[in-house]
Input
Amino acid sequence: MHIYRRLMTINRRGFSAEIRRPGTMRPGTPSPPPPPSPVPSEEAGPAPSLTLPGSRTHPLLLYGTAWKKGATAELVTTALRTGFQGVDTACQPKHYREDLVGNGLKEFLMTSVRGQHTPRDTLFIQSKFTSPGGQDPRNCPYKLTLPLASMVKMSVTTSLAHLDTYLDALLLHSPMETHAETLEAYRVLEDYVRLEKIWHLGVSNVALPELERLYEECQVKPAIVQNRFWPGNNWDVDVRRFCRDHGMVWQSFWTLSGNPQLLKSGVVQRVAIRVLEDSDKKEEALYLLVLALGRGWEKGGGVAILDGTTREVAMKSDCEAAALVGEVSDAELGEFKGLIGEEV
Ligand SMILES: NC(=O)c1ccc[n+]([C@@H]2O[C@H](COP(=O)([O-])OP(=O)(O)OC[C@H]3O[C@@H](n4cnc5c(N)ncnc54)[C@H](OP(=O)(O)O)[C@@H]3O)[C@@H](O)[C@H]2O)c1
Output
């Protein structure tokens, strides 16, 4: 059975579009049931997951592929074999080898893990459109002289070719310089959702006012925000509240590197000892507390973490820890919220 569902159609808009999502769903219509559970790892059961608008699932951890250079393919394959159920990349050659992410994904899907193949639709594959300001002009996936809409189309076409599959999510890597440009770029992405090449849209590095405005004015509502978790933006408490109120997934980056103080906190230490039974697992304990911030969001969504570790032992340990998010007590979560100024 082919793992990729390819439809060799050239559509009216002139995209060289050959890869579509399984099933045919129009935005606003009921979506198919969530995909079957992924192949469980031997040691830990499948991690709990989040629910996106339309009932699709989103893993708690996405493997982050920035700065992996020539090791990207092997690390992606290793991460997926170790238990990650999703990957984050970007069409931004300065920081990501999206082509090698595609190779690593293909390698994983073609080979079996403990005698079983993992179906593509149990994985969450996400990429981003990066604006000209975030690109290296000497190595840019689109011509910098093109109109904005054409830049976005070239970038998304490249991502679809690199990854050789439909995308579970495509994010604006950041808002554009003006709101009008942000909306223009986003509207191109909406077309790919209608064409069934992308499931969900989102935006990264976004502040609340721009997110609110975009949400209000767009047609395919953003389902994902990817932002820094660090003191410099007050841990994004206001954006996370917006995500909670709209059933969105809030993806965290800089979770470890941006929080040396939190890593030293008493509650992180206590979660490491009580839940993970290992006082050395402070990084995993901080991950658990951050994931627990998405607990009980009544409209769906929640908090996920981008984890770009290069060590297989940490990949395994992080996946095993994420499965224990339900073990964080309300008192521990309340104390952690207190540290980051989030109402309990
Ligand atoms: N949207 C954006 O603008 C943006 C910006 C930055 C990053 N991102 C995304 O976020 C991903 C993650 O980037 P990040 O900056 O948050 O950090 P990261 O790449 O996950 O790095 C975390 C650091 O913590 C170390 N570490 C120690 N123990 C660990 C553990 N148990 N698990 C994981 N790491 C551990 C890692 O070193 P070892 O490798 O030695 O474990 C690494 O140095 C990127 O790959 C990218 O996909 C997005």
